Every structure is written in C-alpha cells, then in structure tokens.
Amino acid sequence: MDSYLTLIGSIVIGGLLLFSVFNFQSEAKQHSFEYSNSLILQHTAMSVIELLEQDLRQIGYGYNFPALSVFASDSITFYADLFDDGVLDTVNYRLGDVSETPGTTNPRDKIFYRWVNSEPQIDAALGVTNFQLILFDAAGDTTVNLTDIRTIEVTLEFESTEPYYDKLTTMPKYASYYWREKITPMSLQPL
C-alpha cells in the first residue's frame, strides 16, 4: 500500500514538474517573440530617425530663403544641397495612408515616404503611425510663416507591423517606439 502512495506521489510531482517546464518554455517563447518584435521596430525607427535628422539639419544648405516650399503638419518639402555637389535637391517627407499597407496586420501603421528630386526612396519605412511637425520662429513661438522658421519639432511614432499576444488576453499588442526632437538647421539661422 505504501508503494502505491509513493508511486502516485511521484507521478503527481513528476506531472507538476513537467507542467512547469512546458509553462517555462511557453513563457520564454513569448518573451523572445516580444523582444524580437521590439528590436526590429527599434532598428527600423533608428534608421528612419537618423536619415530624417540628417536631412532636416541640411534644410536650406546651398539655398536662399525660404528653404521650405511646402509644409503641413504631416508632410514637409524643402530645398537643400544634400550631396554637397552644388546641385539643389528637393526633398519631401510625408506619411501615407493606412489603406496603403494591406500586407500588415497592424490597422494603424502607414508608410513613411521620402522623395529626393521626385524619386521615391526604394525602401520606404513601414510601421510609422504618426508624423507631426511644429515650426518655431526665433522667439520660440509657433509659426506658419516659412521665412520666420528657425526650429522644427518633429514627432514620430512607430508600431510593429505584426502583433504579439498576451497569454491573459486575446487582444493583439504591438511594440511601440516614440521619438520627439527639436531640430535647428544652421542654414535657417540669420547671419
């Protein structure tokens, strides 16, 4: 009788141990997927941010006022000699529409476009959910007068294109990244 109790106890303890191992593997897989999703998003975000910052710092380089030709809260077109070759380039950034990303699961992500001299960037960025610009004059007040602009505040929000699911809910979750910075192009400063 004692051996049966020992056997049953061993089976119960072994089952609990096996259940714990399977649960641990499931949790590790979930965390690995969340981490990978977040890492991919951060890599994409940093690539976009570096290029955008570099371009915006060159607004007006090799050109006279006004260096900005078109501005909206979610798009910008400006002139600059981006390649320092004496040729004036026209640069445009704009955020696309959610209808342009049918191949992704995220219902909020959009394509972030960059054009240089009317040629679109080949690897346009996916996963941008918000692109916002605010223009400031020399006194630090917001302005829409293109000749008064001295500083540009840029906001970019990113979300992963594919979701991950929490074990407790069935709602999809998306990794996110937020960036805001004020950029003061040297060519927009008075001499």
How would you portray this structure in words?
- The protein has one domain (42-188).
- Helix content is 29%, strand content 31%.
- The chain has one helix at 2-57, and strands at residues 68-72, 75-80, 89-95, 110-116, 119-120, 125-136, 151-159, 164-165, 172-173, 176-183.
- Strands 1, 2, 3, 4, 5, 6, 7 and 10 form an eight-stranded antiparallel sheet that branches. The chain has a two-stranded antiparallel sheet with strand order 8-9.
- It starts with a helix and ends in an 8-residue tail after the last strand.
- 20% of the residues are buried.
Briefly say what this structure is:
By secondary structure, the protein is α+β, with helices and mostly antiparallel strands.
| Counted beta strands | 10
Helix content: 25-40%
Report the portion of residues in β strands.
Answer: 25-35%
- Count of runs of 4 or more consecutive helical residues: 1
Number of domains: 1
Order of helices and strands: HEEEEEEEEEE
User: What is the molecular shape?
Assistant: elongated
Biggest β-sheet description: 8 strands, antiparallel
| Rg on CA atoms, Å | 25 Å
Q: What is the SS-derived class? A: alpha+beta
Q: Can you give the mean pLDDT?
A: 83
How widely separated are the two ends? 98 Å
Extract low-pLDDT stretches: none
